[in-house]
Design goal:
The complex is a heterodimer of chains A (240) and B (504). Chain A is α/β, with parallel strands linked by helices. Chain A has a domain of 148 residues: Glutamate synthase, alpha subunit, C-terminal domain (Pectate Lyase C-like). Chain A contains three helices and twelve strands; from the N terminus they run E-H-E-E-E-E-E-E-E-E-E-H-H-E-E. Chain A has an eleven-stranded mixed sheet, with helices on both faces. The radius of gyration of chain A is 18 Å and the shape is globular. The termini of chain A are far apart. In chain A, 52% of the residues are buried. In chain B, helix 5 links the parallel strand 11 and strand 12. With 504 residues, chain B is an alpha/beta fold. The interface between A and B is large, with 48 and 43 residues. Strand 12 of chain A pairs parallel with strand 5 of chain B.
């Protein structure tokens, strides 16, 4: 395992070292805001101590990133494969347009999480959030799975406004009793007594990542959001 | 009251009975189902209501028995309410739908290219004969901010930013696989390679068959991020971030599920038959700082080996926007005027949003010069460049090079019927139907593209020679080579051009 002390290091310098490192396991210590860590990377296991900057694991292509701390904006942007586990909270635009792989966040996520995530063949992107999510969760979602576990304790709603606006594929599971207010018209909400198998195994993975007990989470009821099958977009146009 | 208003066909098929041999080729060629053979009479019939005036049948008819004419059916004459406007109201009253159109804005708004004239030398500073003298059309796109640094042996260090080398100041603009066919992409890729220039994948990803043209490929990253992954970024000479498009500034894209064939789905990396929706903005870019982040993450992903282009539509604040982009770390800015083409756009957006490229380009170039950052970026102008003269004028107004899209499609057979959104292109361009795609032969198509651009290159060289300029880069921003006619003082001021007859 190679350890890189990121103290006082510029992001380009840090990322060049990560890229050129021949060892599979890399530990980045004293990380403080360096952006684009692990961009497009495959075949590595990276542990980050501290707070990485924006766009951690952008275009990630199979590498595993574990962060002991919070992450900033645009984590896992356009991620293709791999796992990002954040033992903390994540900022805005987490998992933007991801196509594959998994993002596990122990705490909360900010606004615009999981926008335009999409599934393709064996690639099924998944985001599991331990606490709550801000507004615009899963906007334009085209595929994949988003799960919000609602383990936060600040008493705020499990999701903000405009959850699933423009959603046209995939599913969102919210561990809560009631359908959140102000859902857009094209999203269908239903209460389910337990998670389907694929979602349940994602929750188990999340628990394993952060040393949590899965029993209560798996025995809870969830609200499942899916796009309404009457496609509202196609009907919007008339050829001229 | 009628539930749906009858709208009489815009075109009529005229068949010369004396020439028609009822070979039925027209019937076979028309995917819209206009032509049919009437067994009773033994003659061909035409359903004018289905005709989009793409001229496929006219071109293919072996005896030239066909022509398409505009219908002379008229509504009561009204200078305010023309037939098109009235019909649009009917269509919307029938359907409740947003009007959808294709290709560029066809409205008769002023075309500033046609009000600009190019200079030539007489007597002094004599013109140059391009047949005899070398005439350089090669140029480089990217930052020109290299510093002169030497190593300890006194040798120059290479501090050049990555860039693109073009043998001619023309690139093929972004058209996605999905909006156009596999064969159309094959034509563009092959022609770009032969011409020493670039084609652009658009936002639909890159088919693996075209990886071998990677040295001549610009890949696009748009808000939907379709097909964007490491290999895609790796198989490009440059990466273009699409922030906007001239035909539809401020709105996103929507490829309907019916066009998501197996092959297109593979390239876009989304399941077959699903709608491909590109949100209007990138929801991770709300500022120049956010844009900088995407520019930098793309550079990180490609190890700083590739230039990044940011494409924006020409809109009211184009100059300020370009100034921001030039500071975002981008290497090239592409500006797309409001006449740019599209595979589908809401009619109202296409015809009413955005500004002419001529005015936007002149203002952007001037602003970047005023701020001392013109060398931070190269400029590509597009939407719409129709001829070599437009290219020369665009470069004199400040562009480094031009994107051509519609002109390239015309070279492939397009007749501007503006029906791309139906997916029934009889020329095999804007369709995914295999039997239609097969009509576009990549050997023929790429040759026609090479012919077109080669001819334009010769014309550009002749115009350069006439001006006494022997390198295209010396023409860039050289507005004294232009004069305006029929323009107001305000227009001349914005263009930074003098009136015809005014001296230097």
């Amino acid at each position: 395992m190679r350890t890189i002390d990121a103290e006082g290091m510029d992001y380009a310098q840090l990322n060049a070292q990560v890229r050129s490192c021949e060892e599979e396991e890399i530990c980045i210590t004293r990380c403080i805001g360096q952006r684009y860590i692990g961009t497009g990377l495959s075949g590595r296991r990276i542990v980050v101590d501290g707070t990485p900057g924006n766009a951690l694991g952008a275009y990630l292509d199979g590498a595993t990133i574990r962060v002991n701390g919070n992450v900033q904006e645009a984590t896992g942007d356009t991620m293709n494969a791999g796992v990002i586990a954040v033992a903390g909270s994540a900022g805005d635009a987490t998992g933007y347009a991801m196509r594959g792989g998994r993002i596990f966040v122990e705490g909360n996520v900010g606004y615009r999480c999981g926008i335009h995530i999409k599934a393709y063949r064996e690639n099924r992107p998944a985001i599991v959030i331990g606490g709550r999510a801000g507004s615009f969760l899963g906007e334009y979602q085209a595929g994949g799975t988003i799960i919000v576990l609602g383990l936060h304790t600040d008493g705020r709603p499990i999701v903000g406004n405009f959850c699933g606006t423009g959603m046209h594929g995939g599913e969102i599971f919210l561990r809560c009793e009631h359908v959140p207010p102000r859902l857009p018209a094209q999203v269908r909400a239903e209460r389910i007594a337990s998670l389907p198998a694929e979602a349940a195994s994602l929750v188990q993975e999340w628990c394993a990542a952060f040393g949590r007990d899965a029993r209560e989470l798996l025995s809870s009821a969830y609200i499942r959001l899916t796009p309404d099958s009457n496609n509202p977009y196609r009907q919007m146009y008339i050829a001229n | 009251m009628m539930d749906r208003m009858y709208i009489s066909p815009a075109y009529e098929v005229v068949r010369d009975a004396a020439r028609c041999t009822t070979c039925r080729l027209c019937e076979q060629q028309c995917a819209n189902g206009v032509h049919a053979f009437d067994v009773r009479t033994g003659r061909m019939t035409a359903d004018n209501g289905r005709c989009v005036n793409c001229h496929r049948c006219v071109c293919m008819c072996p005896t030239h028995a066909l022509k398409i004419v505009r219908s002379d059916d008229v509504y009561p004459e009204n200078a305010n309410w023309d037939a098109q406007t009235v019909n649009e109201v009917y269509r919307q009253a029938d359907s409740g739908g947003v009007l959808l159109s294709s290709m560029g804005n066809p409205k008769p708004q002023p075309i500033f290219w046609d009000r600009l004239l190019i200079n030539a030398s007489q007597v002094t500073n004599p013109s140059i004969d391009p047949l005899r003298e070398p005439m350089e059309t090669r140029l480089f796109l990217g930052k020109r901010t290299a510093k002169i640094e030497r190593d300890k042996n006194g040798k120059l260090k290479n501090t050049l930013a990555p860039g693109l080398t073009l043998e001619v100041p023309i690139l093929f603009s972004a058209m996605s696989y999905g909006s156009i066919s596999y064969n159309a992409h094959a034509c563009l890729a092959r022609a770009a390679e032969e011409l020493g220039t670039y084609y652009n994948t658009g936002e639909g990803g890159l088919h693996r068959d075209f990886y071998r043209y990677s040295r001549n490929t610009i890949v696009q990253v748009a808000s939907g991020r379709f097909g964007v992954f490491k290999d895609y970024l790796g198989k490009a000479a440059a990466i273009e971030i699409k922030m906007g498009q001239g035909a539809k500034p401020g709105i996103g894209g929507h490829l309907p599920g019916m066009k998501l064939t197996a092959d297109v789905s593979e390239t876009r990396m989304i399941p077959q038959g699903t709608d491909a929706i590109s949100p209007a903005p990138h929801h991770d870019i709300y500022s120049i700082e956010d844009l900088r982040q995407l520019v930098c993450s793309l550079k990180e992903a490609t190890e700083y080996r590739k230039p990044v282009i940011v494409k924006v539509a020409a809109v009211h604040n184009a100059a300020a926007i370009a100034s921001g982009i030039a500071r975002s770390g981008a290497d090239i800015i592409a500006i797309d005027g409001y006449r740019g083409g599209t595979g589908a756009a809401p009619t109202r957006i296409r015809d009413n949003v955005g500004i002419p490229i001529e005015l936007a380009l002149a203002q952007v170039d001037q602003r970047l010069r005023d701020e001392g950052i013109r060398d931070e970026v190269s400029l590509i102008a597009g939407g719409s460049i129709r001829s070599s003269a437009d290219v020369v004028k665009a470069i004199a107004l400040g562009a480094d090079a031009c994107y051509i899209g519609t002109a390239a499609l015309l070279a492939l057979g397009c007749h501007l019927c503006r029906s791309c959104h139906t997916g029934l292109c009889n020329w095999g361009i804007a369709t995914q139907r295999p039997e239609l795609v097969a009509r576009l032969d990549p050997d023929v198509g790429s040759r026609r593209l090479v012919n077109l651009v080669t001819a334009w290159k010769r014309e550009i060289q002749e115009m350069m020679g006439g001006m006494g300029i022997n390198s295209i880069e010396a023409l860039r921003g050289n507005r004294l080579m232009l004069r305006g006619v029929g323009l107001t003082d305000r227009e001349l001021d914005i263009l930074g051009v003098r009136y015809a007859g005014e001296n230097m």
